C-alpha cells in the first residue's frame, strides 16, 4: 500500500480528525463552568478539596489512559483506540444528568478521563503520523485549537443554558450529541495511520531512545524539560478549572458572567494555537516554551489581585495566549526528538505526566485554598509556573 506523508496529501483524513477532536474537547467543556456550582448547590459540598475531587480522578484516569494509548497504539491500532474511547464516553452526560450523590460525579469523571485519554491521544498521534516531519507544529496547532475552542465554546454555552434553565439537565444534552456523533464518525470514516508510520521510519534520521519512559520523563534534557513544563501547565489549568469559578463567584459575579470569563481563556488558547502551532515549525521551540510558561506564571499571580470583570477578562486573555504558545509546541517538540516507531509511546509518557498535573494541581490548590484561602492558592500555582519556565531556560538545548 503506497502512502504519502504531508498535510496537503492527507487533508481529508486530517480535517475529519480535527472535527472529531472538537467533539472530544466539547465533552470537557460540559463541566468547565457549572460542575463546581453543582457541587455546592445540589450536594452541599463546601470544602474546596472535596469539590476539586472530580478533577483529581479525571486527571489520574486520563493520565494513565494516555500512557496505555501510547504503549498500545501500534499493537491495537489508533482507530480502534479512538472508537473504544467514544464508547467509554457515551454514559458520561447521562450520569451527570441523573447523579443523586457526588460519588456518581466522581464515577462520571473517571469515565471522562478514560474517554479523553483514548480519543485525544489517538487524534494527536494520527495527525502527526499523517503530516510526517513537516508541519508538525501546524498539525498540533490545528488539533489542539479545535479541542480547546470547543472547550471554551461549550463552557460558555453551558453557563448560558444553566443561567436560563438550571444547571441540570439541559446543559448536558450537548454531551449526548457529541458522544454519538464522535463515535459514528470515528467508526465509519476514520482510517488507521500505521502505514504512514512505516513510510516515515524508512527515512527518519532520529536515533532511538534506550529507555522511552525514563528519557521522556526526565533524563533526556530536551524531553525532560518539555515533560515537566507539560505537567505544570496542566497543574495550573486544573487550578483554573476548579478554583477560578469559585473565585469569581466570591467576587460577586453572576453565573452568566462567570461563564463568560471562564470561557475566554480556553477560546483564546484554542484560537491562538492556529498561529502558534505554525510558528513552532520555524521558531526556536525552547524560546516559545520559556516565554509561554513565563506569561502564564505572571498572569496567574496577578489573578489573585484582580477585582473587576474587565481585569479578570484581560487576565484570562493573557493566560490563553501563554498557554497557546506552549501547547502545540510541547507535542511538536516531543515528535522531533523521538524516532517514528517510538513516537506514540513517548507522547503517551509525556501525556501521562502532563495530565497527572490536573490531579496534582487539584489536590494542592484544594488543600491550600481550604487552609490558607483561594488567593494564596492561586499565588503558589503562579510561582510554580514561573519556576517551570526557569527549568526550560536552564536545561533545554537550542535545537
TrEMBL record:
Keywords: Cell membrane, Membrane, Transmembrane, Transmembrane helix, Transport. Residues 10-399 form the Major facilitator superfamily (MFS) profile domain. Its main location: membrane. It is found in: Cell membrane. GO terms for molecular function: transmembrane transporter activity. It comes from the Bacteria. Pfam families: MFS_1 (PF07690). It is a multi-pass membrane protein. One of its GO terms (cellular component) is plasma membrane. The chain crosses the membrane at residues 12-30, 50-69, 81-99, 105-125, 146-166, 172-190, 288-306, 312-335, 356-372, 378-396. This is MFS transporter.
